Each structure stands twice: as C-alpha cells, then as structure tokens.
C-alpha cells in the first residue's frame, strides 16, 4: 500500500501579497551629433532629424521649400524656427560670399 500524503498546507489569515510589476526603462533620448569646435568657436551638439520631426516631413525626404520658408518665418513655432535657422546657417554653410 502507498504511503499517505499529508494534506496541502493552507495559509492561515494573511493572503499572499502581490508585488507590483517592474517599471519599464525610461525611453532613451534620441541620438545626438556633435560638430567639433574649431577656430575659437564652441562645439555644437544637435539632434539630427529634429526639423523633419517638427515639420512633419518623413525622415529621408527633402523638406519642401514652402515648409522651410514657413519655418524660417516662425509659422511652425519657435523651436522649428531655430532649427530651420540652424539648418540653413550651420549645416548648409549659410551662403557666405567672399567680398573684394
């Protein structure tokens, strides 16, 4: 004959406490790019694709001239205006001409 098993133990009084699930890690900040300092100027750190995101243009497509003009005029908000000025002056070279 098989030995008898003891009845399963039951908790008396207190029930098991459910612990909260672990929180998800905070979202990572977008990658930033740094233009190194040269000629007495400071290094510039910026987020590539920020102007595309502000204007609602998909990454990888050119920004239409009308949207760029509106951003430069401030119609898309102050952040988009500063991003557009940065893109025009720093990233594209600004269009400085040598004078005689």
**Rg, alpha carbons:** 30 Å
Spatial gap, N to C terminus: 112 Å
Q: What is the number of strand segments?
A: 2
List the total number of helices: 3
Query: What is the arithmetic mean of pLDDT?
Result: 83
Q: What are the secondary-structure elements, in order, as H or E?
A: EEHHH
The oligomeric state of the chains shown is: single chain
Which structural class should the secondary elements be placed in? Answer: mainly alpha
Measured as a percent range, the helix fraction is 25-40%
Q: Biggest sheet: strands side by side, in what order? A: 1-2
Protein described:
By secondary structure, this protein is mostly helical. 29% of the residues lie in helices and 6% in strands. It has a domain of 32 residues. It is built from 3 helices and 2 strands, in the order ββααα. Strands 1-2 form a two-stranded antiparallel sheet. The radius of gyration is 30 Å and the shape is elongated. The model has no long low-confidence stretch (mean pLDDT 83).
How is this structure best summarized?
The chain has 100 residues and is mainly alpha-helical.
Descriptive terms for the model:
single chain; 100 residues; mainly alpha; two-stranded antiparallel sheet; 3 helices; 6% strand; elongated
Write the topology of this structure:
Layout: E1 33-35, E2 44-46, H1 50-55, H2 65-73, H3 78-91
Antiparallel strand pairs: 1-2
Helix pairs in contact: 2-3
